[in-house]
Amino acid sequence: MLLIEWGILTRRLGWTAWDATMRLLPGALMLLALRAALAGLAWPWIALALAASFPPHLADLARRRGLGYVRSVGRQDPANLPDPVDADQDSVLR
């Protein structure tokens, strides 16, 4: 299934092979850990697969931040926030 997703990302959506691999690798390793757990393998194998998924995840995040894909989350301007519901009215929140 992941190979089909990789193919769609690279062929139809025009992603580079590296971008698609970096996006899908952490998930593939977590699925491997799930498979190990469902198969009844010893916990060190499950932990190994989960631990192996973390460095590629961090590398992908760092790569996307460097390319400008990740937007920093900041506080919103109070002028752009919706008006609070009037406390004197008994109305249902929308």
Summarize the structure.
62% of the residues lie in helices and 0% in strands.
Describe this structure in words.
- The mean pLDDT is 81.
- Helices cover 62% and strands 0% of the residues.
- The chain is flat and about 40 Å long.
- Helix 1 packs antiparallel against helix 2 (17-38) and helix 2 (17-38) packs antiparallel against helix 3 (43-67).
- It has helices at residues 2-12, 17-38, 43-67.
- It has 94 residues and is mainly alpha-helical.
- The chain has a domain at 16-70.
- The chain is built from three helices and no strands.
Which class of secondary structure composition applies to the elements? mainly alpha
Largest sheet: none
Q: Stretches where pLDDT falls below 50 for ≥5 residues?
A: none
Number of helices: 3
Shape: flat
**End-to-end span in angstroms?**
40 Å
| Average pLDDT metric | 81
Q: Helical content, roughly?
A: 55-70%
- Residue share in β-strands: under 5%
Tally of strands: 0
Q: What is the N-to-C order of secondary-structure elements (H for helix, E for strand)?
A: HHH
Radius of gyration: 21 Å
